[in-house]
User: Fold these one by one.
Assistant:
Number 1:
Amino acid sequence: MNKKDQNKHFFEKWSKTYDWAPFQFWMRHFQLPALIEIDVSQKGKLLDISCGTGEFLKQLEHNDVHRNLQVYGLDLSPKMLKKAKNKLSSKVNLLEGDVHQLPFKNNTFDYAISTEAFHHYGNQLQALQEMVRVTKKDGKVIIVDINFFLWPIHWLFERFEPGCVKVNNKKEMKILFEQAGLREIRQERSFLFAVMTMGKKK
Ligand SMILES: C[S@@+](CC[C@H](N)C(=O)[O-])C[C@H]1O[C@@H](n2cnc3c(N)ncnc32)[C@H](O)[C@@H]1O
């Protein structure tokens, strides 16, 4: 099975228990730095790539996101998306799709965000370039992903987590952002075992 099919299979199965409260308590802390980057007082468009069961989008709804922002969520797994649809307002546009071929025109979004998913992408530079392509000039590309700060743990994840491709350290993430042509790159530790990397489109 290729990585895309492995991931689809893995997350279709996990969708049943993904919203388990203790796990989501951890995830809310994990996603927090991305949430802080969003200015809900400005008009714009936001895309949550690999939105899963829509927990990050639900947090945005608590911050009155629909007042100014048009919101989109995309994911590979129909079952994850079904869970998201059941909990989110009909104002959120949910789509099935692959980060490597986003079904949007160039320069569409003010924010392109991915949380807890980048290590599952089969071609990480291509995925990031797609995120940059659909982002407007000066828009923000934000990735929050796992980072255990110890390469043996990353090695174990890459061997044993189904669908895992590569867990990057901070330096590797920064290099990918530079290769994708992003500017004003910032990195911030997120809760215990995650790092946010943010860059603006030139
Ligand atoms: C661990 S979940 C994270 C969900 C959500 N972002 C969160 O923070 O809870 C990873 C998600 O990535 C999605 N995914 C994996 N590979 C993908 C791809 N190539 N394109 C789009 N989504 C993908 C999976 O279907 C899954 O819903």
Number 2:
Amino acid sequence: MPSFNTHLHPAVPPTDHEHHQVIIVGAGPTGLFLGLKLAREGIDVLVLEGERGIMQSPRATTYMPVVLNEFEKVGLLQDVIDGGHINSDGVVFRTPAGKGDKVLARMSLSVVPKGVNKFDYAGIHMGQHQLAAIIQKRAELCPTFGIRFSHRFAGATQDADKVRVCMVTNRGEKWFSADYVVGCDGAGSSVRRSLGIPFEGSTWDDFRFVATNVKYPGFDKYNFPTANMIVDPEDWAVVARTGKPEEGIWRVAFGVRTDVPDDKILEQIPAKFAELLPGTAEERKECELLNASPYWAHQRVAAEYVVGRIILAGDAAHSNNPIGGLGLTTGLMDAAALGTILIRLLVKGDADKSDQLLRRYGDVRRKAFVEYSNPQSMENKLRLHSEDPTVVESRDEFFRALNTKPKETSIMMASQMNEFLDEDFSA
Ligand SMILES: Cc1cc2nc3c(=O)[nH]c(=O)nc-3n(C[C@H](O)[C@H](O)[C@H](O)COP(=O)(O)OP(=O)(O)OC[C@H]3O[C@@H](n4cnc5c(N)ncnc54)[C@H](O)[C@@H]3O)c2cc1C
């Protein structure tokens, strides 16, 4: 070794690790919500996020009553109400502005009696990055909650008692250990991949999604309600507020054929906006594009959600196309269920039931995705654009039911969401 001062940063040996009861990989809304639920019960939880801050890309906008129930249980609901916009309008199905802007049907959850849902509105709208920031702020009030950015998961090993995790940081590798590690690191989950768990299913090869956020006064001028589904074989889309009306920001998400090359995708925006934005060409010049991101859409699920003491939740465990807003809804419900179980294992004296309860988490939550979120999200997407005669017939039937029996049809749609109960985990 040289005798002069080298300023060498000594490598941390893998045995010298920092221990926490639960380590969550990924500071998306799923990971943060789970962290909040656990930290409120005094569990020592550390969230490790690969990026330097919370991801800002335009993704989820809508949080449904089933999720709001869970927010209420951890004291988060009022923060979300204060930060977002309550959708009392329901959802309107319509044709593109450039093709007549005809209202086809309207789903209104305000006609659903209390008792089916606790809330008589369709949901709360706000950007996913804003929701994540609100959850993080509330979690940071708990003394046992910790979060570190620029920590990227690289791998893990486990034995019967704990998991050892290697994270890559700006200062090299850092080692941690935990009683349980939860992979909430999104659809490209490194935690899932490191366990060799297949992500079963497929990726849509007809359209890619482009999500844009815009400021366009025309939506208010032409009386667009909070959530709109645009039905058309090519120019199908979702148009929805991303927050409070005074912010004036709308999500316009549409499909672009997969034969359009990557570097030409965003060039499709002007032509799509000409079809989707109401108003004259002159009025459309007022549209301010705030951001835009293309996405591949998947219908995939992890073959297993639990391997020993490593568990998957949120998009790390499943991924579906965004029409109908079921992706994060399902992820937040995973977090709620897993939170209940980890509290039982770590606080309520059920440590000896670890395998049994975690297996139950995996079975119930995988089933919820496979039997509800996955087929429902596929139906939601096809309803917007498919010309398949069976889909056309079922779309017509659905719109007819909404138009002739709005109350019954809306109750049916609202009750389908109640696919999760805490009691499922009391065994
Ligand atoms: C256009 C669009 C609109 C959508 N709209 C809705 C909607 O309205 N409602 C709805 O319910 N869902 C919607 N979704 C789906 C929703 O965005 C996802 O389901 C949601 O992001 C999942 O949250 P998550 O926390 O599980 O994962 P993510 O939000 O993907 O978060 C994962 C986190 O893990 C981090 N990470 C990744 N790898 C590592 C690593 N190796 N080490 C450490 N950290 C890592 C990432 O940086 C990220 O912060 C939409 C999706 C899209 C694309």
